[in-house]
Design goal:
The chain is an alpha/beta fold. The chain has helices spanning 9-39, 47-71, 126-131; strands at 5-8, 73-76, 92-97, 103-109, 120-122, 139-144, 147-157. Helix 1 packs antiparallel against helix 2 (47-71). The longest helix is centred in the N-terminal third of the chain and has 31 residues, at 9-39.
């Protein structure tokens, strides 16, 4: 059985854009590079040909990977959900680390969308797993690689 993978609407849009770029721009460019390299003659010792074939292999692999991800995606449009104080997939959570008083803000997203520098964490991360299902005002203990952290949920946004 194929398991559906949650993904935000923004994540799906980003993957579709990458797929379009690969199919409409990269694929024709690589095909032209292969044709040009073939015109140079002997393919056994033609570095341009081998480099172009390697690029083609990478691009086709990425196209297949993106198509599979989109086919198995369960796209969740967080803006269509009624606003609530409950932390769910796609919501943005602001919380205070009670150990050091530091305030943090993360959006809980799918595996492929996670980017800590942009404030996006995977739903399967220890922090997200501890936060999902909790409400504003709840104090949550999170087991992280750095040890046990205690935090209080201050705000939940459905952006």
């Amino acid at each position: 059985m194929i398991q559906r993978v949650p993904m935000t609407n923004a994540g799906a849009v980003k993957l579709r854009a990458e797929l379009h770029e690969l199919k409409a721009v990269a694929r024709p460019r690589i095909t032209a590079a292969i044709a040009e390299a073939r015109a140079h003659g002997d393919l056994k010792e033609n570095a341009e040909y081998h480099a172009a074939r390697e690029q083609q292999s990478f691009a086709e692999g990425r196209i297949a990977e993106i198509e599979a991800k989109l086919a198995n995606a369960h796209i969740i449009d967080i803006t269509s959900l009624p606003p609530s104080d409950k932390v769910v997939f796609g919501s943005t959570v602001r919380f205070i680390d009670e150990d050091n008083g530091e305030e943090k803000r993360y959006q809980i997203v799918g595996e492929d969308e996670a980017d800590i520098k942009q404030g996006k964490i995977s739903f399967s991360s220890p922090i997200a797993r501890a936060l999902i299902g909790k409400f504003v005002g709840d104090v949550v203990e999170v087991q992280t690689p750095g040890g046990l952290k205690t935090c209080e949920i201050v705000e939940v946004e459905y952006l």
